């Protein structure tokens, strides 16, 4: 069935280090994947997306990697900052957007 | 350019009552999707509206219904409220022309508590 899951509910990273958040999906028909950031009291905010015909896409301080062979998606955040503290969701889309449970990113001083 | 606005921000209802939540889409967006987010969970798709008609529905009972108006704003109605309906309800708008599931902009949500 359809499902999108994240490997870890919580991730703690030292300020300035790189963060890697992982996600596994199960629907082979999904052709579009998105990472969202949700801060307390706010709705999900788009970070970066990738289509299934790509393996990697880079944005400002963020990179998304897609491995279709093992149905794995990851978000890399370079030089993590205090403002990166939030819950991060991966989501997949075939005919609707399906969210995973989320990973809470804690930034250690 | 205005973003997605939702009202009210918080709401407390009693079990068995009915509730209406409202959403104004971002300027230029003609598709609205509604999600339910329970505490500690990811958002769950309820349904999507385009051209004032339902354009896809998730695994929610018929007591969850919606409307879209000519100005693309939308309402989510929930009848016979249950305690498990307590959640953050999120509205997202997107432009159909680029594909209904691309370019989502989310509102900040309505926090519904059923007691």
Question: Which tags fit this structure?
Answer:
heterodimer, A: 109 residues, mainly beta, six-stranded mixed sheet, five-stranded antiparallel sheet, 11 strands, 56% strand, globular, B: 115 residues, seven-stranded mixed sheet, four-stranded antiparallel sheet, 50% strand
Tell me what you see in this structure.
- The complex is a heterodimer of chains A (109) and B (115).
- Chain A is an all-beta fold.
- Chain A has strands at 4-6, 10-14, 19-25, 32-38, 45-51, 56-58, 62-67, 72-77, 86-93, 97-99, 103-108.
- In chain A, the strands form 2 sheets. In chain A, strands 2, 4, 5, 9, 10 and 11 form a 6-stranded mixed sheet that branches. A 5-stranded antiparallel sheet of chain A has the order 1-3-8-7-6, with no helix packed on it.
- In chain A, a hairpin with a 3-residue loop joins β6 (56-58) and β7 (62-67).
- Helices cover 0% and strands 50% of the residues of chain B.
- Chain B has no helices and 11 strands.
- In chain B, strands 2, 4, 5, 6, 9, 10 and 11 form a 7-stranded mixed sheet that branches. Chain B has a 4-stranded antiparallel sheet with strand order 1-3-8-7, with no helix packed on it.
- In chain B, a hairpin with a 2-residue loop joins β5 and β6.
- Chain B starts with a strand and ends with a strand.
- The mean pLDDT of chain B is 93.
- The A-B interface holds A 4, 32, 34, 41-46, 49, 89, 91, 93, 95-102 and B 4, 33, 35, 40-45, 48, 56, 58, 90, 92, 101-102, 104-109.
